[in-house]
Specification:
Shape: rod-shaped
Low-confidence stretches: none
Number of helices: 2
Largest sheet: none
Length: about 180
């Protein structure tokens, strides 16, 4: 009987040891489950943050694209105005050439009239008046030409500003695209 009691005590002791080991393993597994849940929560929060960042960047990209379109339309408008100014300048230059040719023809006619002895003074006054009118017209045209050149210079500076802005926005878009293409960690 003592042997049986000893055997039962030993079995009870082994069972208590086994129970302790199993409780320890259960505690370790519970801690691992808690750690995994915390990791899952952390990863979910990070994924939510990344999604929020992605949406914000997408909105920024759309905003930048809208700005780019607006700038592109402004550049197109400026180009059209520049073309119109260039056409006007060409017309003025042709008018100046025509007037200059008229002046030259007038001078030649004056010389021819001076060579003719009849009514020299009357014809000379007439051509002097014509030459003055042509010079006045030429001065007016020169003023218009200077004004057009000034407008063209202003348009060039505005165009340059918008091209700089366009380049800046394009660089930002390229940077965002490059950032978007990087693997997310």
């Amino acid at each position: 009987m003592d042997a049986k009691i000893t055997e039962i005590r030993e079995e009870l002791s082994n069972t208590n040891v086994m129970k302790g080991k199993l409780e320890g393993q259960i505690n370790v597994l519970n801690e691992q489950i808690k750690a995994a849940q915390m990791t899952d929560d952390s990863l979910k929060a990070r994924l939510d943050q990344l999604e929020s960042d992605r949406k914000e960047r997408k909105e920024q990209q759309e905003h930048y694209l809208a700005q780019k379109q607006e700038i592109d339309s402004q550049v197109a408008e400026i180009e059209a105005r520049k073309q119109a100014a260039s056409d006007e300048l060409e017309k003025i230059q042709k008018e100046i050439a025509r007037c200059t040719q008229g002046i030259e023809e007038g001078k030649n006619e004056i010389i021819e009239i001076l060579n003719n002895k009849a009514s020299t003074k009357a014809k000379l006054q007439k051509f002097d008046t014509m030459a003055e009118q042509v010079n006045i017209r030429k001065a007016q045209l020169n003023q218009r030409l200077l004004k057009r050149k000034s407008e063209e210079a202003d348009l060039q500076s505005v165009l340059s500003e918008y091209q700089d802005k366009l380049a800046e926005v394009s660089r930002e878009i390229e940077a965002l695209k490059a950032k978007k293409k990087r693997p997310q960690t």
